[in-house]
């Protein structure tokens, strides 16, 4: 290789060619800057690299000599090398990285990613808010229109209409269903319909707070069904945590001022129905998303609820039920109340599903307990229900027991999940 600043010595290939290139070459020193990948380091850095081998080389083609000197390479690359170096230097001065200087910075996190906890909290608040509003409107409707079978039918009817409109606009896209899926979902829908109707019968018969207190026994029925129907072994700690639930509900029931057997038995039947709904839901696991599954279950449940509403309450409704309600509140408010109670029923269930999909099992358990506390507390304040001291103490004990059961069960499920993940790895 020729020394910088001296003539380049060429092989003897003819005087014409040698005289053409015998002028001294004075290239300026050239440094090539190699950008270190941001994957390797977070800070921007510049590194020197040796010149490529192709520079200052000779090649022959059809007896024509081609020479690449340092200066020609430098001139050819100057337009692409130095702007990058300048931009990188500017980025370095600002504390940024080279990728940002080139306009290739990492995409900034979306609002939902930055404030995930805030959004999850908003989901919980919306879930509780919609649930409380539903219970308030629902009870107010029963105060002047005591027909729970028909009101249950309206709940599902409005929800199905909502699902059909959502499918029509493609939010979400309707999942296809076949005979096998229909057979799987039908038992789930039957239990859903029974549990929903019995809950409303209880709401119409007794105070909302009392119905929710009785429904706090649902974990007890779930545990019993898991062990004696599905054959799952329930740990002793779970059974012990359910003792306060049974004791608390018993205390509240003995002195509840609005107690009657219709409200109590209906709430208990609702607990059993929803327990079997959970069992059949596990057997009916499909690849269909939860929104579509709930829509199909609502449609089937609506069809199931039509016959009892017509048979049990139809004659009374036609004779004086509708006329009495319209006389008390007016046609417009009557229709409006029925529509909104159905809409809030569907929305709070949908938001509940969306909320529970965002959180861990432990948070799910705590959220369910807090929801029941919210509903009981707000119903007492809004309707001014008088409760005895023993009822209040019993309700508190039952809720505490549900909280203990939910936390223990969530911890067990989390341990199982971690063990399965460890075994898989």
Structural overview:
By secondary structure, the chain is mainly alpha-helical. Helix content is 71%, strand content 4%. Strand 3 and strand 4 form a beta hairpin. Helix 5 (116-144) runs antiparallel to helix 13, helix 10 (236-255) packs antiparallel against helix 15 and helix 14 packs antiparallel against helix 15. The relative contact order is 0.12.
Would you kindly provide a brief summary of this structure?
The protein has 425 residues and is mainly alpha-helical. The chain has 15 helices and four strands. The protein has a two-stranded antiparallel ribbon.
Q: What is the fold's blueprint, element by element?
A:
Layout: H1 15-21, E1 32-35, E2 46-49, E3 58-61, E4 64-67, H2 70-93, H3 98-101, H4 111-114, H5 116-144, H6 148-168, H7 179-205, H8 208-215, H9 218-228, H10 236-255, H11 261-283, H12 290-329, H13 331-356, H14 361-383, H15 389-424
Helix pairs in contact: 5-13, 5-14, 6-7, 6-12, 6-13, 7-11, 7-12, 8-11, 8-14, 9-11, 10-15, 12-13, 14-15
């Amino acid at each position: 290789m020729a020394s910088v600043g001296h003539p380049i010595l060429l092989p003897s290939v003819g005087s014409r060619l040698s005289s053409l290139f015998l002028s001294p070459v004075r290239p300026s020193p050239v440094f090539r800057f190699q950008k270190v990948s941001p994957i390797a380091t977070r800070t921007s850095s510049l590194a020197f690299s040796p010149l490529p081998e192709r520079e200052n080389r000779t090649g022959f083609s059809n007896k024509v000599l081609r020479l690449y000197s340092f200066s020609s390479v430098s001139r050819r690359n100057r337009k692409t090398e130095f702007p990058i170096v300048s931009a990188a230097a500017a980025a370095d001065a600002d504390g940024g990285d080279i990728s940002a200087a080139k306009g290739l910075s990492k995409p900034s996190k979306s609002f939902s990613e930055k404030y995930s906890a805030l959004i999850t909290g908003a989901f919980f608040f919306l879930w509780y808010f919609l649930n409380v509003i539903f219970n308030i409107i629902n009870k107010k409707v029963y105060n002047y229109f005591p027909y729970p079978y028909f009101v249950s039918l309206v709940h599902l009817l409005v929800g199905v209409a909502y699902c059909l409109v959502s499918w029509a606009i493609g939010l979400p896209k309707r999942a296809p269903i076949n005979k096998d899926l229909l057979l799987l979902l039908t038992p789930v829908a039957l239990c859903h319909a029974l549990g929903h109707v019995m809950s409303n019968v209880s709401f119409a018969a007794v105070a909302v707070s009392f119905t929710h207190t009785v429904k706090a026994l649902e974990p007890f029925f779930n545990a019993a069904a898991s062990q004696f129907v599905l054959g799952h072994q329930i740990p002793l700690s779970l059974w012990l945590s359910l003792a306060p639930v049974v004791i608390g509900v018993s205390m509240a029931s003995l002195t509840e001022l609005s107690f009657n057997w219709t409200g109590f038995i209906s709430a208990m039947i609702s607990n059993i129905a929803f327990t079997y709904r959970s069992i059949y839901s596990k057997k009916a696991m499909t690849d269909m998303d939860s929104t579509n599954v709930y829509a199909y279950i609502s449609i089937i449940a609506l069809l199931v609820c039509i016959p009892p509403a017509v048979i049990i309450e139809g004659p009374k409704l036609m004779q004086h039920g509708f006329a009495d309600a319209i006389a008390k509140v007016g046609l417009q408010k009557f229709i409006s109340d029925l529509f909104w109670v159905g809409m809030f029923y569907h929305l709070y269930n949908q938001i509940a599903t969306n909320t529970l999909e965002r959180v861990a099992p432990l948070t799910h358990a705590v959220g369910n307990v807090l929801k029941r506390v919210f509903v009981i507390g707000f119903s007492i304040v809004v309707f001014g229900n008088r409760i005895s001291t023993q009822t209040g103490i019993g309700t508190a004990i039952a809720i505490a027991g549900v909280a203990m059961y939910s936390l223990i069960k969530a911890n067990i499920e989390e341990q199982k999940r971690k063990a399965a993940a460890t075994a898989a790895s």
